[in-house]
Amino acid sequence: MMPIQEELLTEFHDFASTAATANSVMEHIAQRLHEKMARYNWVGFYLVDPTDSGVLLVGPYVGSFTPNARIPLNTGLCGAAASTGQTVVVDDVSKDPRYLAGSPLVKSEIVVPIIVKNKLAGELDIESYFSRAFDKSERDFIEACADTVGKYLAKT
Question: Is the N or the C terminus of the chain less surrounded, counting Cβ atoms within 10 Å?
Answer without folding.
Answer: C
